[in-house]
Amino acid sequence: MSLTHQALLFDSPAAFLSAAVPFVREGLDRGDSVLAVTSAENEELLRASLDGEVERVTFLPAARWFESPGRTLDAHHRRIDSLPGSTGILRVLGEPVWAGLDPLETTEWGRYESVMNVALADAPAWLMCGYDRRALPEAIVDDALRTHPTLAVGAGSETSGAYADPVHYYAERNVALLPRPGAGVEWLPDFVDMAPVRQFVADHAVRLGVPPGRLDDFTLAVNEIATNAVRHGAGRGEVRMWATDRRVICEVSDTGTATDGFLGFLRSDPSAGQGHGLWIARQICDLLEMHTGGPGTTVRLHIRRYA
């Protein structure tokens, strides 16, 4: 079975349950691995509707599952890899957490929803993504129609007429240069090997707000991207680092142009000797922005600041 990726647009508890309950029950009847990652309110509704079957469903907090786009994609891969036997599939009833996101975070989660159609295209998985019309901005609901090939309608489905090819959707978000940061930017103007890059991160990251417990991982992520700049760019690059109210950002830029599609969203072959850098960086960082083309390639690695 290949991927089924549906949007469930609902405006009442009844509308949510009319699609969610048949989806879950069918999965349990088939012996699928069923995850429910919804709001607390919808989890309560679902538990009440499943009666004696509820213990067979794995419930996870939505804030934990939808922590960052890269880690959520990897979580799907790990669940699929651990499926028992060859008959069951992974079913996820999920509600992405949109509340409290800034525009950049909202954009990246939209990109994630689109790229899932490519990253898990051949996976034995059925993802039903809930969108509460009562609470979400219209733009997010409209975008769901573009990132999900089908819509859940009760116990059935219909094609989304607004669905956008992920190649085109992704390209829309790679058309503009990333805006330049303001004041307070630390700068390593030129590097040709990794030691100065790692030292640069060590000198500035914690002072700018990177949680000390995440420093080693953040250094690894920056090192992976900087290594790509040397290997695939012009053999050198530059690094900048600064802080916003929410995140610390490290930018690695070079004069090369990347050609691989969906950069860092597609898991590399574990047996390959290289090509894992962007994938690793996406797992570590809370967000990863990338622009390629024009004057070169720029990657921004974001990590949430500690309070």
Automatic annotation (TrEMBL):
Residue ranges constituting the Histidine kinase/HSP90-like ATPase domain according to the UniProt record: 213-307
Pfam (any one): MEDS
Recorded GO MF terms: kinase activity
InterPro entries xrefs: Anti-sigma-factor_SerPK, HATPase_C_sf, HATPase_dom, MEDS_domain, RsbA-like_anti_sig
Keywords linked to the UniProt accession: Kinase, Serine/threonine-protein kinase, Transferase
NCBIfam families assigned: RsbA_anti_sig
PANTHER family, per the entry: ANTI-SIGMA-F FACTOR RSBW, ANTI-SIGMA-F FACTOR RSBW-RELATED
Protein name (database record): Sensor histidine kinase
Organism listed in the record: Dactylosporangium darangshiense
Source organism phylogeny: Bacteria, Bacillati, Actinomycetota, Actinomycetes, Micromonosporales
